[in-house]
Amino acid sequence: MSDETAGHRPGDHEPGDHAADDLFAKHAAAGHDDDAAQHEQERPHRVIGTPPPAESRSLLGGPADGEAGVPAVRERELPTEPDNPESAKRAERVVVACFLIAMLAGLAFLASYFIFGVHTVTAVQHSNLALGGTLALVFLGLGVGAVIWVRRLMPDVEITEERHPLRSAPEDRAAFQQTFEDGAEASQFVKRPMVRRALIAATVPVAVAPILLLRDLGPLPGKKLDHTVWRKGLRLLNYGANTPIRTGDFSSPGGMITVVPDGYQDNFDALAKAAVIIIKFAPGQVHYTTRNYPVPGQTVENWTVDNIVAYSKICTHVGCPAALYEQTTHHILCPCHQSTFDATRGAKVIFGPATRPLPQLPMTVDAQGYLVARSDFTEPVGPSFWERGPSV
Amino acid sequence: MSPTTVRRRPVAGYAVVLLGLLVAGLSYAAITSAGAATTTPRSLSGNAQLAMGRHIFLQECASCHGLFAQGVQGIAPSLIGVGSAAVDFQVSTGRMPAKEPAEENPRRSLPKSTDQIHDPQQIRALAAYIQSLGGGPTIPTRADVSQSGANYGLGQQLFTADCAQCHNFDGAGGALTYGKYAPALTKSTPTQIFEAMLTGPEAMPVFNNTTITPQQKRDIIAYVIQTRNQPNPGGFSLGRVGPVTEGLVVFLGMLLFMVLAALWITAKHGKAHE
User: Fold this and answer.
1) Per-residue pLDDT averaged across B76-104, rounded?
2) Runs of H (alpha helix) within chain A
């Protein structure tokens, strides 16, 4: 930018602004260094932690020396004393009380860190209450005290603070440019391209690194979402007790339990997809198909054992555990968004945002009479995903 | 002073804040009371008990369930084979005799009136009579529901796997479809919890003794009872139904508080303008 454009353009200013401009010009010309030295000597003894004594009661120093030709800026004196000394005295006490409460609460916070252990659940709850409560009191005391201070003790006077133009003076700008160019010359940065290029080359790998780290967002799931850990012959375990299930044991119509694949009961990554509920029906309650693949509105009979039906527990809407089973209506309800599935009709959707039935797990019994999987699910379980393809 | 600036008395400002706090406080109202005590009925044996049970059945139940407990299509199910456990659960929780068919019969305390079933002994007699009709799950003994030596950890795992989806992780209950709901377990006695698992009342699935063993049922009961004794150091459990009520309280209560605080901070202080 050239010096010409950097200079003042009087046409930009309204006539009223001239006063301020002239004022700044005067201040700049006064010579700041001399002023500072003088003030340093005159300054009285000051207690550490308190602000320096004000030079003037006016926020914006007016023309103190009253130079001729400069219009005087309107003085905005801040009152040194509040209007009502009695009220101020009361407010002072309240503010001090608030700050003292905050201080005591802060000490109580520190103390409760040591007093309350975290060795039991109950102790943690008490510790949380003590720490949170005292910390809240600290900030509340500080905040309330500060607001009362501002509202009752500080003067309620609106002040407009004039500011210098942001642009530096032309001579400052020229000096900066000169310094910069001298420095660049002296540093040999321009003269020695080898050093310069080596420096640039040294920073390039670090600059590229953040882009490379985006790789950690992957890898893409591939076919992982299409399958669960269920496979042929894998026993169904009663989740929690982790015991295999005989059809003769799970024999009361209206029964429903959560089951997991044997060997994966502690593998939460696997269970996120493989959790299953099995439901025992009375004869004649389920609408069966004799085909060996899912038919809309029907349950695959060959995949059931003795009116025990297995459905994925993972809701096809967004993957919540759908296991609120009503044995009177045979509805499976998902608690997250109220998707409702009819367990007697292949878990077809009868209400809610889910669009696909809960996949049915093919089941049979092994030689010992325990319920086992006949295969994995024949379609991906859980919510839709981009590569899932059309539903069955 | 500009015409839009309204001068307020400081007292009025505090009154508004106090009123707001009162409203916020009232919205907390979550009252829980202690669970009902179990009582040991006096034993009445054999035919005398059955006769008493039959008498009660004909008086209280037969109008809906039929003279022979065979049930009435569309009104009430058959009671043959439901077992004494189902009778004890339904009657001791006040769900039966029901005044009228409902989606969900609420839990009630036993009536005081001696005209109705009001005595555990009467319930035992009625249960024995129904048991005599067609067998079924029986009322658990005191040892069956004892919590001594129970495995709380396993109880919690089983509760989480098979109960928490409806009854909430703390037994606080929750909504089902079409007006049905899973009731809170805060007042259920150990015997009633055992019977509910065994018989599957209303929409609840059945957890028979070969699927969830009696020992596992004791573990679950121990967990449910234990959650009631957990303290609420903050003072409000908010029903222990999780983030929904907590969020609601924070949103309504704290938002109101912060609005009032903002009003107080920015309100013009009259004296300074004079």
Assistant:
1) 88
2) 3-6, 18-30, 32-42, 85-115, 121-148, 170-186, 193-213, 268-274
Dist. CA B186–CA B10, nearest whole Å:
46
* Domain housing B114: 34-137
In a domain, A264, yes or no: yes
Last residue of a domain, one of B113, B137, B161: B137
CB–CB of A255 and B177 under 8 A?
no
ipTM score = 0.75
Report B:138-157 residues touching A (Cβ under 8 A).
154, 157
Q: Does B46 touch chain A (CB under 8 A)?
A: no
pLDDT of residue A31: 44
* Total tally of structural domains belonging to chain B: 2
* C-alpha dist (Å) from residue A134 to A30, A77, A111, B21, B202: 53, 41, 10, 20, 48
Is the pLDDT assigned to residue B215 strictly greater than 70? Answer: yes
Inspect the interface and report whether the beta carbons of A257 and B162 lie closer than 8 Å: yes
Cα separation, A46 vs A65, whole angstroms: 27
CATH of the domain at B133: 1.10.760.10
With an 8 Å Cβ cutoff, is B74 touching chain A? no
Q: Does B63 touch chain A (CB under 8 A)?
A: no
Number of independent structural domains in chain A: 2
Q: Is A255 within 8 Å of B208 when comparing Cβ atoms? A: yes
Identify the domain boundary among A101, A134, A153: A153
Higher-confidence residue of B38 and B196: namely B196
If you count them, how many residues does chain B have?
A: 274
Closest CA to B157 of A232, A241, A23: A241
- Dihedral of CA atoms A99, A102, A108, A111 in degrees, nearest 10, equals -80
| B4 found inside a domain | no
Question: Closest residue of A to B262, CA-based?
Answer: A147
| B54 compared with B234, residue with greater pLDDT | B54
Give the chain A residue nearest B154 (alpha carbons): A240
pLDDT in tens, B162-176: 999 999 888 888 888
Residue A58, pLDDT score: 52
- Per-residue pLDDT, B90: 92
> If contacts are CB pairs under 8 Å, which of residues 266-305 in chain A contact chain B?
279-280
Choose the mutation target among A154, A326, A337, A338 for the interface with B, i.e. most B CBs under 10 Å.
A326
| Angstrom distance (rounded) from CA A362 to CA A276 | 11
How confident is the model at residue B273, as a pLDDT? 44
A239 & A109 share domain: no
All residue ranges of chain A with pLDDT < 70 are: 1-76, 391-392
Contact A324 B176 (CB under 8 A): yes
Identify the domain containing residue A276 by its residue range. 225-387
| Identity of the residue in B162, B165, B204 whose CB atom sits nearest the CB atom of A327 | B204
B39 — pLDDT class (breaks 50, 70, 90)? very low
Query: Taken in order A97, A98, A99, A103, is the CA torsion positive or negative?
Result: positive
B162 and chain A: CB distance < 8 Å anywhere? Answer: yes
